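Worked example 3. Consider a protein that binds adenosine-5'-diphosphate.
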Amino acid sequence: IIASYNQDEDNINVVVRVRPLSDKEIKAGDDMVVQFPGNGQVMVDAIPGGPGGGQKARLFSYNVVFEPAATQEDVLQYSGMKRLIEMAVEGFRCTCFCYGQTGSGKTHTLTGPPGLFGIKAVPYSDDHGLVFRSFVYLFQLLQEHTGRTFVLKASFLEIYNEKVIDLLNPGTCRKPLAVRWSKKARGFFVENLFTVDCEELDDLMAVLEEGIRNRSVGRHNMNDYSSRSHTILSVHITSEEPSENGVFISRFGKINFVDLAGSEMTKKTQSEGKTLEEANNINKSLMVLGYCIASLSDPKRKGTHIPYRDSKLTKLLADSLAGNGVTLMIACISPARSNIFETINTLRYAARAKKI
Ligand code: ADP
Ligand code: MG
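Given these inputs, the predicted complex is written out as C-alpha cells:
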C-alpha cells in the first residue's frame, strides 16, 4: 500500500505525506516511529516515560495518507489536486500548500529535488513535483475545452519577514512590494507584481524555473533561508465561452501553490533580535492560516470574524480561503524518531484543519 484514503468532496482536503528515512538517518541508527493502519490514518509510537513522563501512541485521521513509497505521480493522482485544477478552470480560487518542519519534504513534494530545473525540464523525470505535474494536467484540460478561449497568467512571490518579494522580476527582486486591497482586483493584491502571460506549457515551466532560481540567488545557506520564507506561485486562468444567445460567459479561476516556512520556526522564540522577529512573524502567519482553514471546514464558525488581515500570507490567500474554491493541505512529515515531537506537532496542526 502506498496511500490510504478517506476521500470526500469537501472544500478542504487534508493529506499527509511521509518521506522515506534519509541515508543520514539510517546511518545514525534513527528508526521509523510512524505506522499506517490504513483508512487515511497515521499512528505515531508512544514516547517512553522519563523524568517528564511518557506519551501514549496516537492515531490521527486525514483524507489521504501517502506512505514513504508513494511517488510524485501518486501525489498528483490521489491527493485531490486534480479536482483543484478542474475547479480552477471552472472559475474557482484554489490553493494547495505544503506544511511541515524543515527537511520534511515540502519543496520535494511541490517542485522536486534541487537542481532539477537548472537544466531544461523536459523530458520529465520521476522526481518532478506536483507543480510541474499540475501544469501538464492543466494544459490537457484546456485542450479538452475546445469551445473556450483561455488566457493564463502566472506570478511567483516570496514572503520573508512580512515583506513581499517578486521572484520573477530581478530588477525589483529584493525590493519589498506593497499589498493592497481593491474592489477591482476582487480583494488583496500585490502592487507592481510581475505577471507573465503563459500561452504554452513551456511558459509556465519557465516561470517555475525562474522563480526557483531567484529564490536561491545570493543566499549563503539556501535551506536556512527557505525555512524562514513562504513562497506563492499563482496561476490565473481566465476564460470566455460563447453561450447560445450570443452572450459570453467569463470565468476567473486561480491556483496558488504555497511552500510554507518551516513549522519548527514557531518554537524558536528563545532566539534573539532579528530571528525572534522572524520567528514571531512566521508563528503568526502559520497560526492565522491554521485558524482560517479550520473555519472553512467548521460550519459553526461560518459568519464569524476570520482574521485574514493579520498576515500577508492570509491576505494573499483570502479569496480562496474564504470558501470560493477548494484548499488542499499537504502536511509533510519525517518518519524518524529524532523528529517525533515536530511530527506530532505537524499531525496535530493538520488534524485541527479538518475533523475526519
Ligand atoms: P523541506 O522543503 O520541507 O525543508 P525538502 O523538500 O528540501 O524539505 O526535503 C529534505 C530532503 O529530503 C531533500 O534532500 C529531499 O530531496 C528529501 N526528500 C523529501 N521528500 C522525499 C521523498 N518523498 N522521497 C525522497 N526524498 C525526499
Ligand atoms: Mg523547502
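Take a moment to read the result before moving on. The longest strand covers residues 229-242. DSSP finds ten helices and 15 strands in the chain.
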